Known about the structure:
This protein is an alpha/beta fold. It contains 10 helices and 8 strands. Strands 1, 2, 3, 4, 5, 6, 7 and 8 form an 8-stranded mixed β-sheet that branches. The longest helix has 24 residues, at 2-25. The protein is globular and about 50 Å long. The two termini are 36 Å apart. Mean pLDDT is 90; it is low at 1-27.
Amino acid sequence: MKTKLMLSMAAALTLSACGQASNENSVGSSMTLEKAVQDDSRTERYVKRDEARHPVETLEFFELAPTMTVVEIWPGGGYYTEILAPYLSESGQLYAAHFPQNSGSDYYQRSLEKFTDRIQTEAVFGNVEITEFAPLTDLESDIAPPNSADRVLTFRNLHNWYMSGGEEAVRDAFKQFWRALKPDGILGVVDHRLPKDASADAMAESGYIHQQWVIDIAEQAGFELVEASEINANPKDTADHPNGVWNLPPTLNVNEGDDAEIYKAIGESDRFTLKFRKPTTQR
């Protein structure tokens, strides 16, 4: 299956190169982000999260266009995939860099199998190519062909890599993003924000990470910070919950005797939204 994935990625890169000239002369796609978010194929429980996740505003901040090649990192059940796939369906390409096939984790395997089944059976995902991603793992294929992606997007994932592999894992992730992106391509990052005055030790278990720490890691990898946005900020979130970010919706991992309504009232986590660029002149 890995060989098939590598061949299909190479073919997609060739087609993308052949189609660039025609895309530049086209009048553009009829699909908008608003239409993609309102698509009837979306999962009901995901639609309910739009108020907290601001998908249109977030993707507009990352400067998406429907003719682009986009890599979504660890799409999970497909919240953003359900939006990106129809948006890119006419003229773009979406790579879904999911968990590795041989990860050794039962959870990863179940998640990948469920996601793959959706991609293969639902027509809305016709332009989605599944690849693999895991920091510090020797995989046979890249998340996308080198220098092919206009955008690499990761939503609420960095804390997982840090918690499982420390700073080295996050650095390795950014190296893989760099390799996939075209010069002048954009890396979009959303994650749970640890307050500036909170100890960095909290990043090990809470699911929250320091915004400036992520900026520093990205810049050390060669990226330039374009802009930080408060699109996904939530001032109600103090980020000091007993079970970390998982106390909050949608997980609501609440200890016995605690009042779940308190966490429901807070809503989803306070998140930073960062836009980085891979410079055209590489150092």
